[in-house]
Amino acid sequence: MDNFQIETAQNVNIQQNVAGIGERIAAYLIDGVIWIGYIIAAIFILGAIGGIDDDQWGVMMLLSLPLVLYHLLWETFWNGKTPGKRVMNIRVARLDGTQPRFSNYLVRWLLRVIDISLASGGIAVVLILMRGKGQRLGDMAAGTTVISERKRVSFNQTTYVEIPEDYKAQYPQVTVFDDAEMQKIKTVYSDARRGANHNVIVKLSEKVASVMGVTPQEKPLQFIAKVIKDYNYFTQQ
Q1: Which of 34, 91, 119, 148 could form a disulfide with 19 if both were Cys (CB 3.0 to 4.6 A apart)?
Q2: Within this chain, do residues 12 and 127 fall inside the same structural domain, yes or no?
Q3: Which domain holds residue 188?
């Protein structure tokens, strides 16, 4: 899954998760099912009025408008989403972090003819896979992309750390902590180490040792690192 960082006009950095190609294809297929359902309903309506003759082509054109304008209308009035995108929890967004305007939606809709319709989606798939920001031709022209709104948790946001197969744990007392508590310990430790805040690590070490009821044999920095690894060792058994 690709991601990119944008900086808003207020100098606030925002990390965006680009929607995966699988998510976008799934959303397209869901919208396609809705299209088919609408077409079936339109056929029934036309059958009820006796079919199409020279005087009823206006009715046919009117019934086809929702299909032609499907993506443009849904994305414009539903915060960058179609029903398919809503199910997949993805939406259209501008690269600069602001809400897309109608002109952005219009440009990417107009270029659907090249991106998707003419090449059966082939051009769109190739461009999305090649570009790190998940843009098809319409997105490049409109300055947009499709992002995922699903919350993704990285290893840095969990208690997980890699430990070697021959690892020897020293503190079985770490099991007094649960995952939430250990994650908090890991976060405080990581932030303090990154900021070279030794006093925080010392206080954290004292608190952790007190709860565990142990006397550390290591220095505070090494002790907390050992505790985190031991927690993974004992909870992964």
Answers
A1: 148
A2: yes
A3: 157-235
